[in-house]
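Subgroup meeting minutes
Present: P.N., E.W., G.H.
Scribe: E.W.

1. P.N. recapped why we're keeping a running log of single-chain structure predictions: easier to compare across weeks, and new members can see raw inputs and outputs side by side.
2. G.H. added today's entry (207 aa).
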Amino acid sequence: MAALSLVMIFALTGCGDDDIDQAASANGGAASDGDNAPDTDADAPTDAEDDAEEATDIESADVPAGVECLYGNWYVDNDAFKEMLKKAGGRALSVSGWAIVTYNPDGTSLATFDEWTTVTQEQGAKATMVRNGEDQATYVVTGDQITTTETVGSSVLMMTMQMEGKDAITVEAPHEPFSVTTGTFTCTAETLTVNANGATSVLLREH
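Output recorded in log:
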């Protein structure tokens, strides 16, 4: 799998490019009784629709622009991350667990990993990468550009390689020297999208 496969989450959390190379080898309506339901205009908005539209308008109005939109906790959309791996040329079997990025108003950020697991398969070999722990960083925003610099890297990435007919091998990937990563971002009430090094990562706001 190319290094690009995992570049976005490392860009968000500040892990080094060499660390990336090592890792490369996350409705409904109410039922009604048709006989007793009152006659209504099918095209007229319901109270629920009115309330939902009003809530959306208020929510959108309350979302701050620029750097302030980043403040809070964001968790990686595992499904979107899996699709990103596929587009990068890898055969991703699954992405599970939690990877949460926190942006604080003081310019610091924290990446927290809880059994964040990526399983891929290439040419008869299955690779399982599991990250746990925390990484600290600082970030600077200029317009729609965000630059992240890792300051403390204490997360642990364990990699298991299973070849056909052979015993699995598990190693701990070394945490490489701290990195600086720059990308562009788009932030809305619920979604944070970051583009860096030719890949796109999607995070969802934690409530």
